[in-house]
Amino acid sequence: MDDGSTDSDPVTAGESSILDTLGEDVIRIVSPVSLCMLLVVLLVSSLSSTNDLSSSVSSLFLSSTTTPTSFSSLNLLLLGSDSTWEEIKSALVTALSFVVVVTLLTFLLVLLFYFRCTNFLRIYMGISSLFVLSFLGGFIFLLLISHFKIPIDPFTFAILLFNLSVVGVFAVFMPKFPISMNQGYLVAIGVLTAYWFTMLPEWTTWALLIAMSLYDLAAVLLPIGPLRLLVELAMSRNEEIPALVYEARPVDPQPGDRVRVWRERTDVRIEATENSTNSANVQTVQETRLAVSEEITAPLIEAFPQTGDRHLGTEEVEDGIGLGSSGAIKLGLGDFIFYSVLVGRAAMYDYMTVYACYLAIMAGLGVTLLLLAVYRKALPALPVSIMLGVVFYLLTRVLLEVFVVQCSSNLLMF
Amino acid sequence: MTVAAGVGYVLIALGPALSLFASVIAKKPFLILTLLSSTLFWLISLIILAGAWRAFLPVKSTELWPYSILILTSVGFQEGIRIGFWRLFKKMEDMLNAFADRVSKPRLFLTDKMQLALAGGLGHGLAHAVFFCLSLLTPAFGPATFYVDKCPSIPFFLISAIIALGFVIIHTFSMVIAFNGYTEGKRKDQIFVPFAHLIAALITLINLVPGGCNIGLPLLCIMAGTTLYYNWQLVWRRLTEHQTTRSSD
Q: Which family does it belong to (chain B) (predicted)?
């Protein structure tokens, strides 16, 4: 029993423990998602201060310390106006039409990809990201300027906006651009689109989130699903699908990095979301993808036979998420957007729901990554997180809020 | 009372936690993941408690006994969950060791295990601070402040920030003590943790009495200091024992 040698002091022995690098890949995808959510929450809370349903917990808290809290006031806060049934109906109709439009457009995308119109697709996505950065970005900047009363003249504003959007389009689509700018601009596009979506009415947002996660589940896992067809097409042709995808590569690769080997069949899963608002005909097409790619110098993609006890050499590790140091987990931008929409909408109620939904989404992301490591197929990233997020939002609003306010207002904590 | 005061309250509650995070946890990605999952764990236990107590709330009486039952059940539940958390931790340790053997790297060091326990405890403390203090701090960023009837000398936000600070320290380090106690099988450590938690929670009951917070807050800080000291002694002993056993090989 050589307990002593296995438990040697790392400082004197100079060895590194596995705890130093394990989980790096996961953190590299968790940080930008968290950053995107944080920015959306900050935008929402600073720009919608005229909403008097914000910080409802604090108003509940203040009323509970002065008068006995009545359940009717709680109900009023929860249900809002009394035309709720109308709102729910219109929300369902909107969500359903959105899903139908997205399905049709994804099939169109599959068709175009089948006929090898990839250039057309790339140019279209470049134009749509230009739209997002310039129009949506400009709109939100104007809101910020008017809210915080920033002194800026129109010419400076126009030049800045033009520069930022053009560089953004290049950063997203040029292959040799610095990876940190690419990642930064992708997060920015995600933030802008997510903020736009939070401007929808409340019931519509929730219905949309649930509908999109169900659509995602169906489109990726059903045999006739458009995303699955797209994945199989790309796989059979060994091509990359033109998409807005966040790639969690490290910014500066250290020397001596072990080259990452995720042996998988490059099953990529695509989800095309199209957003057409009523007021402005801004067409935004983003494709999302959750895939695990390999970064080997030789672009050899091995078909991975699913044998049960396949043993790889010491250089390659088969299981576990986040092993090796230059692994690139890819998460589609649509996932960023819908996670941030959920958290942004939670921010419009109160911060307690924000924290609960953030934890739920992180848990869902972790579960999805785990399933990805186990099944090694294309997996939808939306359903688990969104469902957990919605469940936690409801639980927090109904159960947790009253409990915590009751305890805290009496200065009772544990 | 303006953004500065709001940020100040946040830093009072979370300052030590942030410095622990930046110095110990941010360097190792796995510890960040442990932190997130233990925060989620604590949140789920809090939601279960809230669900169980929902039918009885809001407690309108100003008597002591409903609140003491609340505290007792909550603390008991959370301490019971801690044992479950420890079982999960053991399983994770086994998986990590098996993985380390496969990549022919050394197994988990003692300091690694303690860092994992620290991350787990910090997750619990962070969850407490976030849900009991931070989520109610939103009005503090505005132009006014707020006083509770029973404690007219200190603003409510400051009280909850200080209580949150105390509990962050207690949760963080009692996890380290508890894991060490369960690993070594020492009764003293195992009993210390639930007792410390229970006493700290009961101290907050003093706040129900008008003017009680003037006594309750310092007592809570003393309790936090006790936990910190106990943890310090335990870790010191453990590490020196470990060094001597290693060097005596």
A: Belongs to the APH-1 family.
